[in-house]
């Protein structure tokens, strides 16, 4: 029996996705062609680091750095430009040019999250900064221009329109239903086949109206508005969940973006992480109408992660 396509609404948001699992009977194994070689002039390798760009070193017990925070050498936003005000950093996740995040143990993920917390705290002290985005581009299809594993911090004095719209709709939902929409989503999704992983601290699932193949969201169960509020146990659970997802994506060679949805101070909001693999290209329908066609259902995606 052929599975019919279905138009799904993205929870309380004004977004719609056309799920078309009939196009693909089961999640495919996509092997990206990756040709990685060590380059002598990689700007993130230890011997090539520009000292004047170094913001902070997170060192191992032996003394060498494990994570390195750098000023973005080519920022789109700067603190001395009133017309494009903001601040950007790069977080080099390892001195190793070849090793990718998915190959590290959970303990490394814990330390990376602690670095994210540290940078969020520090950047939030900058005058006029209203929004801080922490994100990672892994692989060429996700927009990574440098092979050496790294994340980025992007901050500005404006609240981006998409973020503002989500915050506005979340507040509207809360006024109407007397509850947090994200907390309600967590409760709902933990009862469905889209659930991927759960412990007492975090919930992981493929969202009902996934825009990307194998898209995943990771939520702390406790109602928090930003990453700095995570406690030690929540950080460990978050690290375990992120390691699980990235390891599966790494096995099939998928590029991905991940980014944190967070606000600096708004108790109505709920902090979470979106992981969006990038093996499909948006074309005429997506670009022209705003409707996204996804040929891998979130139910199929969840099954893939649980295999």
Fold topology:
Blueprint: E1 6-9, E2 16-19, E3 54-59, E4 65-71, E5 86-92, H1 106-123, E6 131-138, E7 150-156, H2 161-177, H3 181-189, E8 195-198, E9 202-205, E10 216-220, H4 232-251, E11 256-261, E12 272-277, H5 284-289, E13 292-294, H6 298-306
Parallel strand pairs: 2-13
Antiparallel strand pairs: 1-2, 3-4, 4-5, 5-7, 6-7, 6-11, 8-9, 9-10, 10-12, 11-12
Helix pairs in contact: 1-4
Number of domains: 2
Largest sheet: 10 strands, antiparallel
Helix content bin: 25-40%
Overall outline: globular
Strand and helix order: EEEEEHEEHHEEEHEEHEH
Total helix count? 6
Any idea what the CATH architecture of the largest domain is?
A: 2-Layer Sandwich
Q: Numbering strands along the chain, what is their spatial order in the largest sheet?
A: 3-4-5-7-6-11-12-10-9-8
For the CA atoms, what is the radius of gyration? Answer: 20 Å
The chain-level mean pLDDT equals 91
What's the number of extended β-strand segments? 13
> What is the fold-level CATH name, i.e. the topology of the largest domain?
HIT family, subunit A
Q: Which band does the percent of strand residues land in?
A: 15-25%
**CATH evolutionary superfamily of the largest domain:** HIT-like
First-residue to last-residue Cα separation:
24 Å
Q: What class would the helix/strand composition place it in?
A: alpha+beta
Poorly predicted tracts of residues: 25-31
Describe this structure in words.
By secondary structure, the protein is α+β, with helices and mostly antiparallel strands. It folds into two domains: 18-24 and 162-253 and 271-306, HIT family, subunit A (2-Layer Sandwich), CATH 3.30.428; 46-156, HIT-like (HIT family, subunit A, 2-Layer Sandwich). It is built from six helices and 13 strands. Strand 1 (6-9) and strand 2 form a beta hairpin. The longest helix is centred in the C-terminal third of the chain and has 20 residues, at 232-251. The two termini are 24 Å apart.
């Amino acid at each position: 029996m052929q599975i019919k396509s279905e138009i799904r609404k993205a929870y309380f948001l004004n977004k719609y996705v056309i799920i078309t699992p009939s196009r693909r009977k089961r999640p495919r194994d996509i092997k990206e062609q990756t040709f990685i070689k060590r380059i002598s002039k990689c700007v993130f390798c230890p011997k090539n680091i520009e000292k004047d760009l170094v913001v902070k070193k997170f060192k191992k017990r032996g003394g060498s750095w494990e994570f390195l925070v750098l000023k973005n050498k080519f920022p789109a936003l700067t603190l001395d430009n009133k017309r494009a005000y903001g601040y950007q950093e790069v977080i080099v996740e390892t001195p190793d040019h070849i090793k990718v995040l998915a190959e590290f143990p959970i303990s490394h993920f814990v330390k990376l999250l602690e670095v994210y917390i540290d940078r969020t705290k520090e950047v939030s002290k900058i005058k006029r900064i209203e929004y801080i985005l922490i994100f990672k581009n892994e692989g060429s299809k996700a927009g990574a221009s440098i092979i050496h594993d790294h994340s980025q911090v992007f901050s500005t004095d404006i609240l981006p329109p998409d973020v503002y719209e989500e915050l506005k709709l979340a507040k509207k939902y809360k006024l109407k239903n007397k509850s947090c929409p994200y907390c309600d989503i967590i409760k709902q999704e933990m009862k469905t086949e889209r659930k991927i992983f759960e412990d007492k601290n975090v919930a992981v699932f493929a969202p009902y109206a996934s825009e990307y193949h194998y898209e995943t969201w990771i939520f702390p169960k406790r109602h928090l508005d930003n990453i700095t509020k995570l406690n030690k146990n929540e950080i460990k659970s978050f690290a375990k969940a992120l390691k699980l997802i990235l390891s599966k994506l790494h096995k099939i060679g998928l590029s991905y973006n991940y980014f944190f949805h967070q606000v600096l101070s708004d108790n109505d909001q709920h902090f979470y992480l979106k992981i969006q693999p990038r093996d499909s290209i948006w074309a005429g329908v997506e670009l022209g109408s705003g409707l996204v066609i996804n040929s891998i259902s979130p139910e199929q995606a969840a099954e893939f992660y649980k295999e």
